[in-house]
TrEMBL record:
This protein is a component of the acetyl coenzyme A carboxylase complex; first, biotin carboxylase catalyzes the carboxylation of the carrier protein and then the transcarboxylase transfers the carboxyl group to form malonyl-CoA. The lineage of its organism: Bacteria, Pseudomonadati, Bacteroidota, Flavobacteriia, Flavobacteriales. Pfam families: Biotin_lipoyl. This is Biotin carboxyl carrier protein of acetyl-CoA carboxylase. The keyword Lipid biosynthesis applies. The keyword Cell wall biogenesis/degradation does not apply. SUPFAM superfamilies: Single hybrid motif. Residues 3-79 form the Lipoyl-binding domain. Signal peptide: none annotated. Pathway: Lipid metabolism; fatty acid biosynthesis. Keywords: Biotin, Fatty acid biosynthesis, Fatty acid metabolism, Lipid biosynthesis, Lipid metabolism. InterPro entries: AcCoA_biotinCC, Biotin_BS, Biotin_lipoyl, Single_hybrid_motif. It comes from the Bacteria.
Length: 81
């Protein structure tokens, strides 16, 4: 098994869930399918969905919720077969 890093395609504010009352998109051990939403990045009041391009198992978020991120920063890690 190998690990894949999901990186930020844009700078902005990182979110692990769609609203303060919602569950996080993924928890460690959750299955990940292609096009699953992993997180959001807010840029100028626009929320951009960051989706998986891989199938595997969610390992971890590498950024805290509501933290500023930069282009190329690792957001999450997925383990693939």
């Amino acid at each position: 098994m190998s690990k894949i890093e999901i990186t930020a395609p844009m700078p902005g504010v990182f979110y692990t869930k769609s609203s303060p009352d919602s569950e996080v998109y993924k928890k460690p051990g959750d299955p990940v399918r292609k096009d699953d939403i992993i997180c959001l990045i807010e840029v100028m009041k626009t929320y951009n969905q960051i989706v998986s391009e891989h199938v595997g198992t969610f390992v971890s978020y590498e950024v805290e919720n509501e933290e500023l991120v930069m282009v190329g920063q690792v957001l999450a890690i997925i383990e693939v077969d």
